[in-house]
Amino acid sequence: MIGYILKRIGLAFITLVLLSMLVFGASTILPGDVGRSVLGPFATQESVDALNEQLGTNRPIVEQYVDWAGGLLKGDLGTSLARQVPAWTLIEPALVNSFKLALVAFLICVPFSILVGIIAALRYGRATDKGITTLSMSFSAMPEFVSGIFLILVFAVWLGWLPVTAQADEGASLPTQFEYLLLPAFTLTLVLLGYIARITRASMIEAMESDYARTAHLKGLPPSVVIRRHLLRNALLPTIAVVAVQIGYLVGGLVIVEVLFNYQGIGSLTYEAARQKDLPLLTAGVLIVGIVYLVVTLVADLLYALLNPRIRFGSLE
């Protein structure tokens, strides 16, 4: 186990290094410059050039990356070029906000999606199964901004049950924050419903057709006991890997949802950094998201191996 974990950590380190280099390289094709973003559209070109010279953004991209990576080795994520504050002071509250939204969405999406997948499997081949499969995959194929706008119109504008924005006032109570996060959480539930429900349904059907399920039925066990003690324990194992991937998405892949609902999370912060061509903040944000994603997937792999005695770490490598 220790060797497997060390190998995964080494691969994760290489992945993060390549990811940071890719972000820096791709930023060269982004339009605009930091000086213009800071000074505004009415500043003279001489002022913009002077600020870019002061910030060092007119240096070669390789030189900028080496300076940023050297600071990172000392625990410094760099300084935001557009706001002139340490990148971590901007990333920390945004990351906390993203974790809050991810937690609410997780608590709603995962149990509901698993339940839907189980119901579809138990009604395999019937109208209920076909209806659930069609609707869940249709929702997953729908772009986030479409489902988000639809939910805003229905629950915020027409019915007035929920707030339009996801950003509660500073110092708001936990129930109030939860209320503000419901609409984006529902949007994410619609997006992820099809993926989780489909895997759960397929795994559940496979478990229902297994020999141990037939044996349990032949012993005269009630269907509820067979489902709870035998089918779910085995059917939910493949769902762990899918859920882990979705957790990484819930933390760092919410750019559209956070911008749509005016939520100050890591996704919207990274988007603003890219729009302003703020390389240190952009790369630091992507790096933090990458770390979260890799940690979550590593924990999921270990949990899957521990729960399934048929899996050996050697085979996972």
Walk me through the structure.
The chain is built from 15 helices and no strands. With 317 residues, the chain is mainly α. Helix 5 packs parallel to helix 14 (279-307). The longest helix has 36 residues, at 87-122. The radius of gyration is 24 Å and the shape is globular.
Task: Briefly summarize what is shown.
The chain is mainly alpha-helical and 317 residues long. The chain has 15 helices and no strands.
Separate helix tally? 15
In angstroms, what separates the terminal alpha carbons?
Answer: 11 Å
Low-confidence segments: none
Helix content: over 70%
Task: Please provide the ordered H/E string of secondary-structure elements.
Answer: HHHHHHHHHHHHHHH
- Largest β-sheet summary: none
**Per the principal axes of the C-alpha atoms, what is the gross shape?**
globular
Our Rg estimate from Cα atoms comes to 24 Å
- Structural class based on helices, strands and sheet pairing: mainly alpha
Q: Hey, roughly how much beta strand do the residues contain? A: under 5%
Q: Indicate the mean pLDDT.
A: 81
Total beta strands: 0
